[in-house]
Every structure is written in structure tokens, then in C-alpha cells.
Specification:
Elements lengths: L1 H5 L5 H22 L4 H18 L3 H37 L9 H29 L13 H12 L7 H32 L1 H4 L6 H51 L8 E3 L5 E3 L3 H7 L1 H17 L6
Antiparallel strand pairs: 1-2
Helix pairs in contact: 3-4, 3-7, 4-5, 4-7, 5-7
Length: 312
């Protein structure tokens, strides 16, 4: 009897609990890993790829998402190249300091790590741009794009056919790798600079002017770090408010569409039998092209306001 109890198969509740804990630790690890560039990772990699997966075989929605994401990704990679180049220059300028006063080895390790991260950020951003160049241009990303080409674009971006697998998550890692290495380059550079300046305290040396320099450096750097953390909190709170606002707007729009009365868009005209028929001008506007042009203009006008800003 005891053997039967031990051999009892796990219930669905047990499996669900294990899965929930696994997802919790996975998301926690991902949050820690992407903390230095969380907003960039969310706006330009995590969220767009999730929307691509949700679009499924809806070609209309998928093409619109790809058109916007490609333009944003180009801007992200351009910002990464500029920031990584500045970081590499700053690191090369400070590495020569390690030849003076025999600094602690940790500063050297952090600065050389910063240098290699900066180099990889520039190199991989160029490679990622070459992948984007293989995608159709903005003018080609329309409803007239052939179905085989849509499948090719989906495969290039997502790297899976039916369900996301190992290749898909590797591709997601590649899409965000330039921003990751650029962010880590600045983090390791500042960490190395802090270790170098605070070497007199680390080695417990006799009091001199270097201790005073370290105190001033920590004071100014502490103010900047304090401001950075608070601004990050406000950015996070603003994101959550925006998401709640969008969700509320979608719910209200759905309710209005469900209970909205029938609206006639044109004057009524009388039939031969005396009844009244609504003259719908919607097909007439569409046939003349006025409706499409107005809709496109409104989309262009609102697109700038809704476009996410790059914060690295």
C-alpha cells in the first residue's frame, strides 16, 4: 500500500505549482539580467516579439508591427553605437591610469571588461543592422507583400514556424545583445572608476589627498546615483499608469462599440415607394480615395505622439 502511495503520479495542481515557481525564478533572473537596460529591452525586443507571436497568421497586423519595429530598432542600434563608442574612448583614456601608483587589480579587470563590451556592442549592432537590411523596406511592407515573403520575414525575426523553441529565444538574445553589452560597458566602467578612486580606502593607506578626492567623488557620484534610481522609479510608475490607461481605453471602446446605436453618415433619400433610405457616403469616400488619405494622415499624426522614446 505504501509503495502505491509513493508511486502515485503527480496531480495537475502539483505540476502547475512547479511551473509557476519555475516561471517566477525565470522572470526574476531576466529582470536582474536586464536591469541596466530594462526599458530599452522591453520597448524594442521583449514587447515587439511578443506582439509578433500574438499576431499569428494575421498578415495585416504583423506587417504593421514589423514596419514600426524596424524603424525603432534602427534608432536603437544607432544610439547603441554612439554610446558604446563614447564608452570605449573613455575606457581607453583611463586605462593608462593603471600604470600609476600601483592601483588595485579589480579596477583593471573592470575597465578591460568595459572595453571589450563596448567593442562587442559596436560590432554586434552592425551585424544586427545587416539582418534588418534583409527585411523588406518600409514601402514594401504593405498588404501587397506576397505570403512567402511574409513567412520569410516572420522566420528571420522570430526563428520558429509553429511554436517558439530554443532558436526563438536565442534570436531574442541576439536582438537585445547590442544594448546589453553597451549597458554593461558603462556599468563596468563606472565600477572600475569607483574602485580606482577608492583604492586608498580599500588598502587602508595613510591619510592623504587621495582620500579627500575619493570622498568628493563618492559624494557627487552618490547624488547622481540617487537621482538615477528615483528617475527610474518614476519611469516605471509612468509605464504602469500608461498600461492601465491603455487597458481602460480598450475596455471602454469595446463597450461603446457593443452598445452604440446605428449612425447614418449621409443624408437620407426617399425611395420610389415612399420609404426612406440612408445615403451612406462611406463607400463613396473610399472609392474616391479621400477616406484612405485622411485615415493615413491621422495615423501619421498620431504615430509621432505614441512612438516610444529611447531611454538607455
Amino acid at each position: 500500500m505504501a509503495d502505491e502511495v509513493r508511486a502515485k503520479a503527480p496531480t495537475s495542481k502539483d505540476i502547475l505549482n512547479k511551473t509557476s515557481w519555475g516561471l517566477f525564478f525565470a522572470y526574476a533572473f531576466l529582470s536582474i539580467l536586464t536591469a541596466p537596460y530594462r526599458r530599452t529591452f522591453k520597448l524594442y525586443t521583449w514587447k515587439p516579439l511578443a506582439e509578433f507571436r500574438a499576431a499569428g497568421k494575421d498578415s495585416r497586423a504583423f506587417i504593421g508591427l514589423v514596419r514600426e519595429w524596424k524603424a525603432n530598432k534602427y534608432q536603437e542600434l544607432q544610439s547603441v553605437q554612439v554610446a558604446a563608442s563614447f564608452c570605449a574612448g573613455a575606457t581607453l583614456a583611463t586605462i593608462s591610469w593603471t600604470k600609476l601608483n600601483n592601483p588595485i587589480w579589480v579596477a583593471d579587470a573592470l575597465w578591460f571588461s568595459s572595453l571589450i563590451c563596448s567593442i562587442w556592442a559596436v560590432v554586434t549592432s552592425i551585424q544586427t543592422k545587416s539582418i534588418l537590411d534583409d527585411l523588406p523596406d518600409k514601402d514594401e511592407l504593405s498588404l501587397f507583400l506576397p505570403e512567402p515573403e511574409i513567412k520569410r520575414v516572420r522566420k528571420v525575426i522570430l526563428r520558429y514556424k509553429k511554436t517558439p523553441g530554443f532558436g526563438h529565444w536565442i534570436m531574442m538574445f541576439i536582438w537585445q545583445f547590442p544594448s546589453m553589452t553597451m549597458s554593461y560597458a558603462w556599468c563596468t566602467f563606472l565600477s572600475g572608476l569607483t574602485v580606482y578612486v577608492c583604492t586608498p580606502f580599500v588598502r587602508n593607506e595613510a591619510w592623504d589627498n587621495r582620500h579627500k578626492v575619493a570622498i568628493v567623488y563618492l559624494s557627487v557620484g552618490g547624488v547622481g546615483l540617487f537621482t538615477y534610481f528615483f528617475s527610474s522609479m518614476f519611469v516605471y510608475a509612468g509605464e504602469k499608469d500608461y498600461e492601465r490607461s491603455c487597458a481602460s481605453t480598450r475596455v471602454n471602446t469595446t463597450d461603446l462599440e457593443g452598445g452604440a446605436p446605428e449612425v447614418h453618415t449621409g443624408p437620407e433619400k426617399e425611395k420610389n415607394d415612399g420609404s426612406v433610405e440612408a445615403n451612406d457616403s462611406y463607400p463613396n469616400l473610399r472609392s474616391t480615395g479621400l477616406l484612405d488619405r485622411e485615415g493615413e494622415a491621422s495615423r501619421r499624426g498620431t504615430g509621432r505622439a505614441n512612438k516610444p522614446q529611447l531611454l538607455i
